Amino acid sequence: MAEETEKKQRVKKGPKGADADTSPEALAKAEARAAKKAEKKGGGKAGDKKEGKRPAPQREEPAAPPIEVENYVPRLLETYRTAVAPALQKRFTYKSAMQVPRLVKITLNVGLGEATQNPKLLDAAAEEIARMSGQKPVIQKSKKAIANFRLRENQRIGVTVTLRRQRMWEFLDRLVNVALPRVRDFRGVSSRAFDGRGNYTLGVREQIIFPEVDYDKVEKIRGLNISIVTTAQTDEEGLALLTGLGMPFRT
User: Fold this and answer.
1) What pLDDT does residue 72 have?
2) Could you read off the pLDDT of 69-107 as tens digits, one per residue?
3) Which of 68 and 201 is assigned the larger pLDDT?
4) Residue 12 predicted with pLDDT over 70
5) Phi, psi of 162 (to 5 degrees)
6) What is the pTM of this model?
7) Are the beta carbons of 216 and 180 closer than 8 angstroms?
């Protein structure tokens, strides 16, 4: 009798003036509601929590050590320091090691006159230059308007990028050992393209010689100019420097 009385008290009353439902179905629903309330208050089903036992702490994995880019020395730079520079100092009898010619920068330049009619060509060229050099290029704009060429002032007509330090050495290494040997019927580059002060400019007719450029995505074959700036005072010193670095000059 006591259990039935307790079950009846758990049943919620209906609308005002109506008697409580004491049927077995109503009592079962009341017990289910009471159990749900108990679960919400307790934070889960009864028996799930064990008193006095804390959850095991999560084990943190050690972070990967940072990559030391500053200590990285490109292969061609190591060759210059160990073999090329001592040979140049001995050949030209420099009194100080600071007089030995060295690389300053490498500039890649693409001029697109057709970009005045089709600006998408310039975006494609910028993406290819970025893949070749590993650095985001700069868009060059015209300085004045030329009506005969349908050129307006401050219009985008070229792409250029300047490489220094590690990226400069890495690019020259790829150019000498990978890209130039892929030129069709390659017989070497000209040794007459110096400017009189030890700087060298090379013209490439096809950008597809660089393996970074996907041939299937190339819309048009275009060339580019590569300028290598050095600290050499004469063309003879610049020629000796680039020859020691592996530039395949035509004999």
Assistant:
1) 78
2) 567 788 888 888 889 899 998 888 888 888 899 999 999
3) 201
4) no
5) -120, 125
6) 0.65
7) no
The amino acid that residue 58 corresponds to is Q
Q: Which residue has the tokens 């920068």?
A: 105
81: left (phi over 0), alpha (psi -120 to 50) or beta: alpha
Which residues, 6+ apart, have CB-to-CB distance to 38 below 8 Å? 46
How far apart CA 156 and CA 140 sit, in angstroms, is 6
Position with higher pLDDT, 128 vs 106: 106
Instruction: Look at residue 160 and tell me whether its pLDDT is greater than 70.
Output: yes
User: What is the residue-wise DSSP string for the chain?
Assistant: -HHHHHHHHHSPP-STTPPPP-SHHHHHHHHHHHHHHHHHHHTS-TTTS-TT-PPPPPPPPPPPPPP--TT---HHHHHIIIIIHHHHHHHTT-SSGGGS--EEEEEEEEE-GGGGT-THHHHHHHHHHHHHHSS--EEEE-SS-BGGGTB-TT-EEEEEEEE-HHHHHHHHHHIIIIIGGGSTT---B-S--B-SSS-EEEEES-GGGSTTS-GGG-SS---EEEEEEE--SSHHHHHHHHHHTT--B--
